[in-house]
Design goal:
This protein has 435 residues and is an alpha/beta fold. It has twelve helices and 16 strands. This is Inositol 2-dehydrogenase/D-chiro-inositol 3-dehydrogenase.
């Protein structure tokens, strides 16, 4: 085993201080070597919402064992363990503290479905502990975190998959090939659409922390605020401290598809956003309506993105999805597994297909082979697609057009905007330096 595939107890404790350091971390956590009959032992972190799909997705794979469920809400994790027992007939280990999962040498990989503000730190800690990672979208809560995730995966030689399952769709892989091969001509614009039913969430104020919830762990690296049902368990999406609004929620599938289809592999140079809250006088902080433009002047390409929360028309049948515009036609992508094309001035129907794929299996295949190149949604795509959403949100929050340097990953001459690229991390949940 090379030194790059090892992590010392001293390094892990140094990078996860405080309470994390109190855990008994093994001196060296080895990289697993899988044989043809070995099963990959996976722990699912965060099991209230999306994590339920992670449990079933991995449990459906013959060479995977769902070995542990982890959530800071003990009520939730015990409920999921009971459901798991009823469904599979098997007893699954439970934990409340994800650091104990990283300490467990029997765990090969972790699947992260926590709130957004935990994604990057959990990914980096897992990489440092020798675990491979499947991380739910968005990969990061801010743009700086995304770069650190890329660096961590590379340094610790980990397989890190971003949970944008459309990347594993056979239909959409075919669609992107059509775009590359010139089916609709010069593809100059991609449009991302997120038209989802988002009702008034009210304002529940503050209240005592419910029994069974470790609120300190739930808050993690974010600023500690008095407990409110406005945050726990779903509506954290609409608060900047934990979430990123719908462009950083559902929208990551569409930002990812925009960049994939256009073939851009860097951030835009010009960003504008406008929007706001127009419907509900509730506790949400993020905009209900958001319109963003991302311009690539050198490539002569543009991404447009629309978030709408309520009653609205679809666009060529698309409410959740993408539209690509070219000099010879356009392509419509609906959801995660369907595309159709329309060619020429007459909009003559062209190739179309509906077919899915198994993103969880793709991850496990890469883990077993020890080859990140097999991943359909590698960590670099997590940084880009999540980062695009972050840039749109920053333009909205500053209220002005922004100029960005894609190489330095900094705004040009705008210190206020640059402050939004990272956050202050609460001890002991500090983002480690990757050197």
């Amino acid at each position: 085993m090379s030194e790059e595939n090892q992590i010392s107890r001293r390094d892990f404790i140094k990078n996860s201080t405080g309470a994390a350091a109190a855990l008994s971390i093994p001196y060296i956590i080895p990289t697993s070597a899988f044989g043809s009959n070995d099963r990959v032992r996976v722990a699912v972190l965060g099991v209230n919402g999306r994590g339920q799909s992670h449990i079933s997705g991995f449990n459906n794979l013959s060479n995977v064992e769902v070995a542990c469920l982890c959530d800071p809400d003990n009520n939730i994790v015990q409920k999921r363990a009971k459901e798991f027992k009823e469904t599979t007939g098997k007893t699954v280990k439970t934990e409340n503290d994800l650091r104990k999962v990283f300490e467990d040498k029997s765990i090969d990989a972790v699947s992260i479905a926590t709130p957004n503000h935990w994604h990057a730190l959990a990914t980096i800690w897992a990489c440092q502990a020798g675990k491979d990672v499947y991380v739910e979208k968005p990969g990061s809560h801010n743009l700086h975190e995304g770069r650190k995730m890329v660096e961590a995966a590379k340094k610790y030689k980990r397989v890190v998959q971003h949970g944008v399952q459309l990347r594993s769709s056979e239909a959409l892989k075919e669609a992107v090939k059509h775009l590359r091969d010139g089916l609709i001509g010069n593809v100059y614009m991609a449009r991302g659409l997120v038209y989802k039913w988002r009702p008034d969430i009210g304002d529940k104020g503050t209240s005592p922390v419910p029994e069974g919830l470790n609120y300190d762990l739930w808050t993690g690296p974010a600023e500690m605020k008095p407990f409110s049902k406005n945050y726990v368990h779903y509506d954290w999406h609409w608060h900047w401290n934990y979430g990123n609004g719908d462009i950083g929620n559902q929208g990551i599938h569409e930002t990812d598809m925009c960049m994939w289809g256009l073939g851009v592999e860097s951030f835009p140079e010009k960003i504008t956003s406008s929007g706001g809250k127009f419907l509900w006088n509730d506790a949400k902080e993020t905009p209900e309506v958001l319109s963003s433009s991302f311009i690539y002047p050198k490539e002569k390409k543009i991404i447009e993105f629309e978030v709408r929360p309520w009653m609205t028309n679809s666009e060529d049948g698309v409410g959740i999805g993408n539209i690509f515009y070219g000099s010879e036609g356009y392509m419509v992508v609906k959801g995660y597994d369907f595309y159709e094309t329309f060619l020429g001035k007459e909009k003559k129907p062209g190739p179309t297909r509906k077919a899915g794929g198994d993103h969880y299996k793709n991850f496990i295949d890469a883990v077993v082979a020890r080859d990140p190149k097999l991943l359909n949604g590698p960590v670099e795509t997590a940084h880009l697609s999540s980062g695009l959403a972050h840039l749109g949100n920053i333009a909205y929050r500053t209220g002005r057009a922004l100029t960005f340097d894609p190489k330095k990953e900094k705004f040009v001459g705008d210190e206020e905007a640059n402050k939004y690229l990272t956050r202050n991390y609460r001890s002991p949940y500090k983002l480690p330096e990757i050197v």
